[in-house]
Amino acid sequence: MNTLVLDSSQTEIAGRILRDGGLVVFPTETVYGLGADAQNSAACTAIFAAKGRPADNPLIVHIVDPAHLELVAASVDPLSRRLFERFAPGPLTLVLPRAAGIPDVVTAGLESVAVRFPAHPVARAVISAAGTPVAAPSANRSGRPSPTDFDAAWDHMHGRVDAIVRGEPSQVGLESTVARVVGSRIELLREGAITTEMIAEVVPAGVPVVTVSSYQASVGSTAATGPLPGSAAGPAPVPSPGVRHRHYQPDARVVLAATGEVWATVSRLVSDAAGRSRIGVLAVSGRCIPTSGAIDTRVDLVTCMSLDEYARELYRCFRRFDATGCSVIVAEMPEPTGIGSAILDRLRRAAGQV
Questions:
Q1: Which residues are registered as beta bridge partners of 73?
Q2: DSSP state of 252
Q3: Is the pLDDT confidence value at 56 over 70?
Q4: Does domain 253-350 bear CATH number 1.10.10.10?
């Protein structure tokens, strides 16, 4: 397949490709997305083929026109509506009852559907030009770090999709927060830039906001309608992507270290490597970096000045470290509050700890 490269002024072409059943990669504020017409079962099935994505991993449906919400969701409860009013457009996805026009392949057979209003102007222009809700997971090969710039998206998807829209690097750098309302509480199925603390500030007093595991999400989810065509029966699908299967892993082995243990971990790995390989180090604000002495030439060090920068640069650094031949990446673990929780989630999955 020849992949067309479009610039941000050619969103009408991208929209036409989507309407015609094609696949288009486009930038969003979170990561680059791989889009198809969410009401076209064959087009959405092609997403799974392009990514090598498991069929029980649902897709997020992106819309820009509030009138299109009824095409995607059968209903919107008051708490979900309140969250959309506060955080949409933006990096928040809500799981809602699925409308009849959304095919099984999009929802992994569940009676729920994940919905997001993206904020990125190019993403919004592409979806508006398509004139239809657009199902769009991250534009990476399944299990790999999500692309946050055009070059990464191109490397993952050229020859697999009809077009890629060139845009600026993603400003958030992590996939969207995914939440759902269950009874009188809000469950976070995947953490992101819209944090637990931010959601708690918006909802009425006494409404708990809890983070749930992928197992809890599966057990608590609405029963699936059955296996998708061609898939084997297995554990119930989880209503959020990015929480059960292997995700976010670079070629290099990822080792996590607390702030006070980063450099000791690096020194040990340098000694063990005995000159045979390079080691990538990802740190925050230089707190864990020694103030004296030379840094070994085999160490590729990236220091972020804030947690927002850490989130934005995480996958780009994974890509950099792989490109420079690092066999191990040592990543400083942030405190599990605010966006630090989302970063820590991605790091643990990259390290194979989840």
A1: 98
A2: S
A3: yes
A4: no
State how far the Cα of 30 lies from the Cα of 27, in Å rounded to an integer: 8
Distance CA 65, CA 85 (A): 13
Instruction: Mark 212-248 as b/e (b = at least 16 C-beta within 10 Å).
Output: bebeebbeebeebeebbeeeeeeebbbbbbbbbeebb
Secondary structure (3-state) at 339: helix
The structure tokens 């918006």 sit at 202
Gap between the Cα atoms of 200 and 338, Å rounded: 12
Residue 129 backbone dihedrals phi, psi, to 5 degrees: -65, -35
For the chain, give the mean pLDDT: 90
Token pair for 212: 């749930």
Q: Is 206 left (phi over 0), alpha (psi -120 to 50) or beta?
A: left
Mean pLDDT of 55-80: 95
Looking up tokens 């989840």, which residue turns up?
354
The residue type found at 246 is R
pLDDT above 90 (res 273): no
Q: In this predicted structure, what is the pLDDT of residue 225?
A: 32
Topology, domain 4-220: DHBP synthase (3.90.870)
Token pair for residue 149?
A: 């710039």
Ranges of each domain in the chain: 4-220, 253-350
* CA separation for the pair 142, 156 (Å, rounded): 10
CA–CA dist 102, 58 (Å, integer): 12
Q: Any idea which residue has 């710039």 for tokens?
A: 149
Q: Which residues pair with 282 in a beta bridge?
A: 302, 331
pTM of the model: 0.91
Amino acid symbol at 22: G
CB 31 within 8 A of CB 173: yes
Helices (H), 73-184: 78-87, 104-107, 121-130, 150-157
Confidence bin at 222 (pLDDT 50/70/90): very low
